Each structure stands twice: as structure tokens, then as C-alpha cells.
Amino acid sequence: MAILNWSISLYGAASIFWPLDVLVVIAGFWGLVVAIVSWLDLEDYPALARWENVFAWSNALLVVVLIGAWTYVQFHGAPGYTTDELSFDQYAAQLVAHGFHNPYVHSMKPAGPLFRLSPDGYTYTITGQPVEQLSYPSLSFLVYVPFILLGWTSELAAGLNVAAWALAVLLMFVLLPRSMRAAALVFASIDVYIAFAAGGVTDMLYIPLLIVAAYKWDRFGRSRSTYIAPVAVGLAMAIKQTPWPVVVFVLCALAWDEYDRSGDAREAARRAGRYFAVVLGVFLIPNLPYMIASPSAWFSGVFALFVRNMVPTGQGLISLTLFAHLGGGSLAAYTVVMILAALLLLAVFLGTYPLLRPATFMLPSLAYFFAARSQTNYLIALIPVALVGAITAGPPAARRVPAVGRRVAGVVRDRRWRRAIAALGVLGVAAIIYAFSSTSPLTVTIVGQRTTGFLGGIKTLIVKVHNGTSSPQTPAYTVQTSHGDTTFWKIQAGPKTIAPGHTGRVELVARNYQAEPGLSDGFSVLAFTEHPAAVSVSHRFLINLWRTATSPQAFDNSVPVGRRVLLKVTVLDHFNSPVRQAGIPVYLTQVRQTSVGFRRAFAKINGHIQKTVVAMTNRQGTATFYLVGTKADIVPTTLSAHLLNKQANYVYGSSGYINIRFEK
């Protein structure tokens, strides 16, 4: 099914790149063959069974080729980076390659225009300022330097991301048991992983390293070859901060295994210490030069995500604040919740060991779920790694299942661990309750908007802001759409600072086109304050969801000049059902779209030769228009129906375009 899915995904691009059609046909046929072969019992056919491994590898390599083809199509259709992460890392690498500059002391601002980064691709603090400092460990950019020196600069970061993901898939395929190999190809074809690989997060670079580290991770110390695991972890940690908590759980697991095996706490500590020493040494090799050259710049950059108030976002617990309006008065509470969640996970991991041993590489993702920035890549990046670790690890040194019995409490090793887990659980729940009960300092209400007309965007928002605190507040405003948070909006009119207990009327304007929400999108205004660090969320603003549809949907044949043609326009709701209401004004606009722009059209609409004609709906929600051509023209007349909100002065509900050509 994964191969068939790739064939379907690439089908549309075959009209642009004809060689892809060959690959689409091969993948489609091969996918059907794979589905049939997978149902066969080949144990009774030794002559065929010996080819099973070759067949499996053919599938894996074909998937990698399909990933490469899909990536090429994406790069061709939308060149440029979509995140500041890739842009900053490659720019930092170019600084190193072209003069051995220290990127941590340079502003990353030039990276945006250099790599055509969209304005909404930046990371912002709650004051509305974009982060323009390199904020990742040094291997995140040093890995690009050799390729830059060899002359590869175009789409380098994204290209290496995809290559790393393909390598991760092949590693999973090699390291997992034969019965689990198909899981690697399924992972390879999951949309979110492919989108992250081509779209711009460097998590893909460390995933292959962590997969190597997770393979039979519990064998560490038995031979020299097992030291590759801490080396791989150290390299992964030198790329990005996400894997940092992983090492804590691995060290604890190694120590517990050794203690259960030998009963010697010192030997358990020495085993974990050797692992950590290798990890730390490998991490410091690429980072230490920058730490020595400019300690403050390195620490302020690498730890920026921990010490600076970044805009909260993500699919974790914070989404209940951003969308369901639970809490918002204390963003710091989410930091406390995350720390308590991490400590609770560690206590449960240790206190019930080896119950959660198979999830050793996955547990940090649960801690990230409670963070104020719980982005998708934080939550899913460790899943392929954890799969390899869970499947390939050997049995624990001490099996405690018989000791559990029927009591759930028997899962925990002793009473002290039960108390620790209970205490941390109570503190965690209390922190969550506080986070959800803390009232936002501001009350934000959208009271008006101005649109870009037929461009379909909202360029101006008017909000009423009430300060419910006892201190002045100077909020920074952004808009939360289905695509994420936009660039912070500019205060065009109204007070920048809201006095205690006062209400201000503020006019906000979008700083760029990318920040304008669409007329058909639901959105909220977010107001961030620094003291306290909090977010105040407006109600969800929904433009009228009605739209229009024409009947017929197309005029396939030319119409003689002078012949009357009937065009009906029906108003539909968001469930595609007619709005059975009379008296709704429907606007029909006509233009001629030439190669040099729009020109006047000359059809009579309901007896009028004018650009826009209005007709009212009947009880069935349908407006009727009669068209008569007055001039023959090879350029068709383009028609479009829409609705108009007169009070707010914006058009919406466009029917799309329909062409009609008049002939003699």
C-alpha cells in the first residue's frame, strides 16, 4: 500500500515531468504485485522463498527512489526554505566555509532573503521580535560545510534532510527483524515525516544517529563495537536539543540493568558513567571551540529556547489554552508542568523498571507534550528510534512480572518509589490546574475588519482590548490561523499601552501578505504580554461560510451573439446545501482576461451591459441571470458570482470562474 500511495502521489506531477510517468506506472504495478505476494505462503516453495530477501530489498530501494522523485517535484514547485531553522543553519555553514567566522556572534537576519524564507517562517518571542540568533548546537550547521566547499548550495539543507530520512528508513529496514521490515517502509511513506524532511526541520539529521544508538542499546559495554551507541547519541545531541533528555533515560536503564544483574550499585554507576563520558566527549568535540571562543554567545544561542519567552504553539497541552481558552495567564506554568512531567516520567520509569524499558527512547516525547512549545516534530521524531530500540533490545536482567500479582501497586519496586510518584503526580496535576485556571490579563474582542476585496484576505483588524490587571500592559499582537501564527501585526491606531482597568480600541494591520488570513479561514487574535508572560486569546472569528455555485458549471460550446443564455447561481452553506432564503443579493461580475490584463466585457446581463449586476435569490436560494452576447470575440468572457457583506464591506463566497465565448 505504501508503494501504491507513492504512485498515486506522483501521478499529478507526471504531466510536468514526463519521465515520472514511467516511475508511476512501475510503482503502481509493483505495488499491486507486492500486495499479492505478501499474502502467499512461500514456506512450501523453497525455490521461491530464497528470493524473498531480494524481493524485500527491491521494495525498500523503490521506496527510496520514490522519496527522491517526490522531493525533486517539491523542490521544483516551491524552491526556498519554509523554516528559519534550515535557513539559519545553512547560512551559519556558509559563514564558516567562507572565512571560518563564528556564526554564534553573527546575526542570522541575512539568511531570510538569501534563502527566500517566508515572513511567517520565523520564530518569534512574545514581544513580537523574530529570533535572529543561531540557536542550535554546532553540528547542526557544520554538517553542511563539506558540501558547501564542494559547491552544493542550492536546497542543500533540505536535500540533506531528505537524504538523512532515506538513510533512516534503510537503517530501520536493515536493523529490524524481517517480520517488522514493512514498518520501515510504512514510516517512510507517512506524510508528516516526508513533509518535515522536505519542508524544513533538522530533526531528520539526528534520527539515523539515534536509530544506530537504539539498536541493541542494552548491550553497551560487552564489546568495543557497542561504544558506537554513545558516539551516535553524542553526535545527535550536537545537532539539536530534542535528543538531550533521551540520554537521561538511557543512562538510568543501563544502570538499572547492571544493578539487577550484579547487585553492585558502583558497577551500575560506572557503566552509566562510561556511556555518559563518551556522549559528553563526542558532543564537546564540535561545540567546544565555539564555547571557548565566545561562551556567552554560544550559551545564549543554544539555550535560547529555554530562557527566552518564545511564542507558545503546538499540538500538546498548550493547544487547550490557544483554542479552548483554558488559562493563558501564566506561560511559566507550562514550563513548571513540563519539568514536573519529566520528573514524573523519570520516577515512573525508575520505580517500575523494567515495565517501561521498551519505551526508553520514546518517553521524552511525553514530556514535550506538556511544554508551551509542543510542536509536532518534538512529538513524533523519536517514534522510529523507539521502535528500533524496543524491538532489538534483549530481555531485562530481572523479570518482575511474577512479583506484580493482581495488585497494580505491585508494579512499583518499593514504597519509596510509590511515594515519589504520588507526590510528583499530585504536584503535576496541581500545576496543570493552575495553568488552566490562571486568567488571561487581557480580554480581546474582534469588532471589525477590512479586506483586500477579490484578493480574499483580511488586511486590517479592529480589536477591543480590556486590561484586567492592576498594572499597565503593552501587548504584542499576532493572528492564529489554521496554518499557524503569522508575523506580528502592526498597531496602526489606538493605544500601544492599556492602562489598568481600561479598555482600548486598537487598529491592527498585517505587515505582509503572508500574515493576512483568508476570508474563508477561521482565526483568532493573540495578545502577548511580557509582565506577566501570558497570552490572551480572542474569540474565534468566522467569516460567513456561505458560498455560491453556478449552473451550468461550464459552457463547453460557443454561444452565438444575440442568443439568450440562462445562468443560475445558488447560495450554499458550508455543508453544500442550498440556503433556502429569498432576497439574498448575488453579484455577477464579467471581465475579459487577456494576456496583458483585465479588459472590459460587453455581454448583457439581465439587460445591462455593465461589469457587475445584482439579482436576488428566490425561496430556493437561487438567483437567475440571463446573458446575451453583443460582440463576437476569441477572448472568452469570464464570469464570477459572489456575495457581499455591506456592513463590513467585503466580498466572499466566490463561485470561481466560468468562461463563455461568443461567436457570430
| Topology-level CATH name of the domain at 547-663 | Immunoglobulin-like
CA(first)-CA(last) distance: 54 Å
**In terms of per-residue confidence, which ranges show pLDDT below 50 for 5 or more consecutive residues?**
401-405
Residue share in β-strands? 15-25%
The number of distinct β-strands equals 23
The main sheet comes to: 6 strands, antiparallel
Radius of gyration: 30 Å
Named CATH architecture of the domain at 547-663: Sandwich
Going by helix content, strand content and strand pairing, the class is alpha+beta
Gross morphology: globular
Q: Which CATH first-tier class of the domain at 547-663 would you pick?
A: Mainly Beta
Mean pLDDT: 90
Proportion of helical residues: 40-55%
